[in-house]
Design goal:
Oligomer: single chain
Distance between the termini: 92 Å
Strand order of the largest sheet: 1-2-3-4
Helix content: 10-25%
Strand content: 5-15%
Number of helices: 8
Largest sheet: 4 strands, mixed
Order of helices and strands: HHHHHHEHEEEEEHEEEEEE
Length: 348
């Protein structure tokens, strides 16, 4: 064979152009003993070396491809090229990670050198935190400390509601869009995201109460301290940043609409005292005429709004009726429908 370059020889295969006898893998693994005492033929000899050459060529091809990718030149008497390949020095990387075990790919080496691309437990945790429906989560204390809008935030210890940034004349910061909403439930005490409306005092220095105070002021639901009354959905200014909270104990909720007594509109937060619509008794003249002879003109209504004169009305036949001077309340201590009590609270 002609004298050839060391590395080029790896690319030759014995007997490439010659005939090859059948040489199965089992025979190859047994070695020359499978041939016996008979010298191997040229074809058998070439077949064995072709298998060895193909394996060597495959390994050399891998090294040559890696060297080309790294820009490294292979030399017969210099092993530094192989060291450079194994060192896995990645272009654009600020540090060198040695060993193929430490760095599997060039892309990973680049990523470790980039704060944007690097995947560490901290960065992975930050990314995964954003996958709560696309909205990050934070505690109330963390949200309270924010000084600028960072988009909606789920407040994890306040009912897991998404809060948004608001900026008004009375409050700037994150607040629940459902602030001051009345939830109806049977819990014995207010939960962390609720505030009792039982007539206590709210303070602007309390971060939760401050949000409610601002909301009521934004809606114009305020009264003077002397005008505050139980049942109103309003707060009263007590001075010094303190406000009298609403007291909604023992009252029913009713949709705003029209006052039946005055025909005036009823606005949200307004109060209306109890009333009962019943048939009013009348005071009647004491004379000898039978009941069916009385006319409405002779009867005086005891209740406001009762008609004083209409066409004759017949109450029955025979007998007289005396004076009806008064009424007596019977039954319970109040007029009410059946009800189930819920906790008087509003959402913070």
């Amino acid at each position: 064979m002609a004298n050839v370059d060391f590395f080029s020889a790896f690319e030759y295969a014995w007997g490439e152009n010659g005939a090859i006898d059948t040489w199965i893998d089992t025979q190859y693994k047994l070695g020359w003993a499978s041939i016996g005492s008979v010298p191997p033929s040229v074809e058998q000899f070439n077949a064995v070396h072709q298998i060895a050459d193909r394996k060597a060529n495959w390994l050399y091809g891998q090294l040559k491809t890696a060297a080309t990718a790294r820009g490294v030149t292979l030399a017969a008497g210099d092993l530094s090229a192989l060291v450079q390949i194994l060192a896995a020095t990645a272009p654009d990387a600020s540090t060198t990670k040695k060993g193929l075990i430490e760095i599997a790919t060039e892309a990973e080496a680049k990523a470790l050198a980039s704060a944007l691309l690097a995947i560490t437990p901290a960065t992975l945790g930050a990314v995964l935190a954003d996958f709560r429906s696309g909205i990050p989560g934070a505690t109330f204390a963390e949200v309270e400390a924010l000084v600028a809008d960072q988009g909606p935030i789920i407040v994890t210890d306040m009912g897991c509601m998404p809060w948004t940034w608001v900026s008004t004349a009375y409050f700037t910061g994150y607040r629940n869009p459902l602030c001051a909403t009345i939830p109806q439930h049977f819990a014995a005490t207010a939960r962390a995201w609720e505030m009792p409306v039982t007539g206590g005092v709210w303070s602007e220095s309390d971060p939760k109460q401050a949000r409610l105070i601002a909301w009521f002021r934004e809606q114009g639901l305020t009264v003077s301290s002397g005008s505050w009354a139980k049942g109103w959905g309003r707060i009263a200014d007590l001075g010094g940043g303190d406000w009298k909270a609403p007291d909604l104990q023992d009252v029913f909720l009713r949709m705003a609409g029209t006052d039946a007594d005055t025909a005036n509109p009823r606005v949200p937060g307004s109060y209306q005292s109890a009333a009962a619509r019943i048939a009013a008794p009348v005071r009647m003249k004491n004379d000898s005429s039978p009941w069916n002879a009385y006319s409405w003109a002779s009867k005086t209504a005891l209740a406001a709004g009762y008609p004083s004169s209409v066409a004759d009305s017949y109450f029955g036949i025979g007998g007289n009726i005396g004076n009806v001077e008064s009424t007596v309340m019977i039954g319970g201590s109040e007029t009410r429908a059946a009800s189930a009590a819920v906790l008087p609270v509003v959402l913070v």
